[in-house]
Automatic annotation (TrEMBL):
It comes from Hymenobacter sediminicola. It comes from the Bacteria. This is PorT family protein. Residues 1-20 form the signal peptide. Residues 20-215 form the Outer membrane protein beta-barrel domain. InterPro entries: Beta-barrel_OMP_2. Keywords: Signal.
C-alpha cells in the first residue's frame, strides 16, 4: 500500500516539475539591517541600522499564479550600537574623580551566504503583475568587520580613540583578554515576507527578514550569557530572469 502511494506522489511532483516554467537570473539589491537586542542591562545601548549589499542568483519555477523562488545570495547584514553615559575618572592622578561624558559607537558588518526559499503569488501568473511572497531562509556567516569609536569629554579634556577588528563565528566566546574580535554564532535561520512586482523578465521585491536565531554565543566558559540578538532587515532587490525551457 505504501509503495504505490509513494510512486503516485513522485509521479505528481515530476509531472509538475516538467510543466513548470523555469527561469533563472541575477539578483541585485541591498539590506537595511539591524538586530533586536535583549539584555538585562537597564542602560542598554541603542541599536541602529546599517546598509549592506545583497547579490546572487534566483530561480523561478512558475505553476500558474504560484511560483517557488529559491535564491543563493551573498547578503551583508549587521548593526550599529550607540551608547552615551556619564563616568567618573581620575585622569590627572590627584586622587579626585571628575565627571566625564563617554560616547561609544560600535558598527558590526556581518557577511552571510544565504539561501531563502520563497513561495510567490503573482496576479498575472507567468507574466507577473503584483506579488506577495513569504518563506524561510538559512544563512551561514562568512566574515565581517567590527569597529568601535569612543570619545571622552569633560573638565577641559577631549579624547577620542578607535579600534578595528574582525568577526569570528563560533558557539563560544574567546577567553583571550587581548582578543578584540566580535564573536557571533555562525548559522542564522529566519523568515522572509514582502511584496513585489514583475513585468516580463524583470522583478522588483521589497521584503522584511525576521531572524529567529540568537547571534550571541556562550561565554568563554560555555555558559549562556542571558543576552539575545536577532537579525532584522528590510531588503530591496531587482532580478532579471532568463528562460530555461525549450
Amino acid at each position: 500500500m505504501q509503495k504505490p502511494l509513494f510512486l503516485t506522489l513522485a509521479a505528481v511532483l515530476l509531472a509538475g516539475a516538467v510543466q513548470a516554467q523555469i527561469t533563472v537570473g541575477p539578483r541585485l539589491g541591498g539590506n537595511l539591517a539591524t538586530v533586536k537586542l535583549e539584555t538585562d542591562q537597564a542602560d542598554a545601548p541603542d541599536t541602529k541600522s546599517l546598509f549592506g549589499p545583497q547579490v546572487g542568483l534566483t530561480l523561478n519555477a512558475q505553476f500558474g499564479n504560484l511560483s517557488v523562488q529559491p535564491s543563493l545570495l551573498y547578503s551583508r547584514k549587521g548593526f550599529q550600537l550607540d551608547d552615551s553615559r556619564n563616568v567618573d575618572f581620575d585622569f590627572d592622578g590627584d586622587g579626585d574623580d571628575e565627571a566625564y561624558s563617554l560616547k561609544t559607537t560600535a558598527k558590526a558588518r556581518l557577511g552571510y551566504l544565504e539561501l531563502p526559499i520563497n513561495l510567490v503569488y503573482s496576479t498575472g501568473g507567468a507574466e507577473g503583475g503584483f506579488q506577495v511572497f513569504a518563506g524561510p531562509y538559512v544563512g551561514m556567516g562568512l566574515g565581517g568587520s567590527y569597529n568601535v569609536k569612543a570619545r571622552i569629554e569633560g573638565d577641559g579634556l577631549e579624547y577620542s580613540d578607535s579600534n578595528s577588528s574582525g568577526v569570528k563565528y563560533a558557539d563560544k566566546a574567546s577567553d583571550d583578554e587581548d582578543d578584540d574580535n566580535l564573536y557571533v554564532r555562525r548559522f542564522d535561520v529566519g523568515l522572509n515576507a514582502g511584496i513585489g512586482y514583475k513585468t516580463g523578465p524583470v522583478q522588483a521585491q521589497l521584503g522584511y527578514g525576521l531572524g529567529l536565531s540568537n547571534l550571541v554565543p556562550n561565554d568563554a566558559d560555555g555558559n549562556d550569557t542571558g543576552e539575545k540578538a536577532q537579525n532584522r532587515a528590510f531588503h530591496l532587490s531587482l532580478s532579471y530572469f532568463f528562460s530555461l525551457n525549450n
